[in-house]
Design a protein that fits this description.
The complex is a heterodimer of chains A (302) and B (143). Chain A contains 10 helices and 13 strands. Chain A is α/β, with parallel strands linked by helices. In chain A, the strands form 3 sheets. Chain A has a 6-stranded mixed beta sheet, with helices on both faces. Chain A has a 4-stranded antiparallel beta sheet with strand order 11-12-10-13. Chain B contains 5 helices and 2 strands; from the N terminus they run αααββαα. Chain B has a two-stranded antiparallel ribbon with strand order 1-2. Classes of the chains: A alpha/beta (302), B mainly alpha (143). At the A-B interface, helix 6, helix 7 and helix 8 of A face helix 2 and helix 3 of B.
Chain lengths: 302, 143
């Protein structure tokens, strides 16, 4: 099953391009990190996925071919928008009641249990809750829909370290228990490797990189060596980024095979996810799109 | 004070060192092996459920499943459908004489390294790199 599939997806706002020709096929059962700088098109992609926006051209489907925003898609997809917007003057109990009324499927007992576990008072006004508790309340409501796919836009942005840890703990436990797929956007790189096992890199409206984290890491190496050895580098290696100066340079290269690349004078080391993501973001022209489906659709991989 | 990163009151208590460079799943595998070695857990004991581990450590569920699969692969644990993962075997210890022989060879190597002018940190770095190389080659097919 695919949870999100796009083909030639583009979105323009008043002639300004927010997403261009995006091709994705994300399989079920992953926690997907959608990563990119501010303004890269992350929120646009997520809003298209939950049906809050319509594509300018191309197609987007969720949960095996469902049109975002259609009743079938709405039943299976949960969404926590950026900053978890809720009615600030409503009580926590009121928010729960409204969520129950608005959703065909709503496990009120689950939501209540979660809220009591965290220690959020039911009578409190939503606006009076801490940022961490507001985020937890929004998550509890979204999870009570029992979605097959949960989409979260920058869920970690406002959380302090403890709130972030507790929020992610609940989210990961729900993914483990229900087999739910998760797609979340983030511009924070630090905890990506622990949380996500599938990476989608968006930069300037284009998909730069998409794939399972272990496959992405296995497909790259960092070569370290003296700058004098650079001219002798095999042309097939085509570094994504060259960093460092003076006595040593570090090159991030793609390695399609299992073996370390042969580059005289250079030592190969495994790539670290954070360093790899940064290198791609710093080189918006570089793309690497593994995956048979994408290769078959003829996406240029410059 | 109770560390929130510790999981499991009755069996293995997992913790993570995010700065160690050791992949998370391998840290979990090593901690189960260590608990087996120390006799803290034994055959029949249940490992923490995937849900409990990910809730407490805030990590990806597939990472825990990968660790438990690796333990099954090493013959140390077995999954029981609908129940969880259980310790299957005690850790294969190296026999006394074999361990002594290995230690002797390592001591000889360390003496050589010291004689050639390497300091302790350089020796430790060489050892760690060799361990990493061997593990990488063993795990290459899985990764």
């Amino acid at each position: 099953m695919t949870v999100l599939e796009t083909s030639g997806l583009s979105k323009r706002y008043r002639g300004v391009s927010a997403l261009r020709d995006c091709n994705l096929a994300i399989p079920a059962g992953h926690v997907v990190a959608l990563v990119g700088p501010n303004g890269a098109g992350k929120s646009t992609l997520l809003q298209l996925a939950v049906g809050l926006q319509r594509p300018s051209s191309g197609t987007i489907r969720v949960l095996d071919g469902k049109v975002p925003g259609s009743p079938a898609a709405l039943a299976g997809v949960g969404f926590v928008a950026q900053n978890a917007p809720m009615y600030r003057n409503m009580s926590v109990a009121g928010m729960l009641q409204m969520a129950r009324d608005l959703n065909l499927v709503f496990d009120g007992a689950y939501a209540l249990r979660r809220i009591e576990d965290i220690g959020i008072p039911l009578k409190a006004k939503v606006g009076a809750l801490s940022g961490g508790h507001q985020a937890q309340l929004a998550l509890a409501i979204a999870l009570a829909k029992r979605p097959q796919l949960l989409v979260l836009d920058e869920p970690l942005a406002r959380l302090d370290p403890l709130a972030k840890h507790e929020f992610l703990g609940v989210l990961m436990a729900a993914a483990a228990a229900e087999g739910m797929s998760v797609i979340f956007s983030s511009h924070v790189l630090a905890e990506l490797e622990r949380i996500s096992d599938y990476l989608v890199l968006v930069n300037r409206g284009r998909i730069q990189l998409a794939g399972r984290v272990d496959a992405v890491l296995a497909g790259h190496r960092v070569l370290t060596g003296p700058p004098q050895a650079l001219p002798a580098l095999p042309p097939t290696l085509a570094p994504i980024r060259i960093a460092g100066a003076g006595a040593q340079v570090h090159l991030l290269v793609r390695t399609p095979g299992q073996e370390d690349p042969v580059a005289p004078g250079f030592a190969a080391q495994p790539a670290v996810l954070e360093e790899l993501v940064l290198a791609y973001l710093q080189e918006p022209g570089a793309t690497s799109l593994p995956g048979p489906r994408l290769a078959a659709s003829g996406v240029p991989t410059r | 004070m109770i560390d929130k990163h510790l999981v499991g009151a009755s069996s293995v208590a997992f913790r993570l060192d995010h700065g160690s460079g050791v992949p998370t799943y391998l840290q979990l595998v090593q901690q189960v092996e260590q608990a087996l070695r120390l006799g803290l857990i034994g055959p029949g004991d249940q490992l923490p459920t995937v849900k409990d581990v990910v809730q407490t450590l805030a990590i990806n569920p597939n990472t825990v499943m990968k660790a438990y699969r690796e333990l099954e692969h090493r013959g140390l644990a077995a999954g029981r459908p609908g129940q969880g993962t259980f310790v299957k075997a005690a850790l294969q210890r190296v026999s006394g004489p074999e361990q002594v022989a290995l230690a002797q060879r390592l001591r000889a190597w360390v003496r050589d390294a010291v004689a050639s002018g390497l300091d302790d940190e350089s020796i430790a770095a060489i050892f760690a790199a060799a361990m990493r190389d061997v593990h990488d080659h063993q795990n290459g097919a899985i990764a």
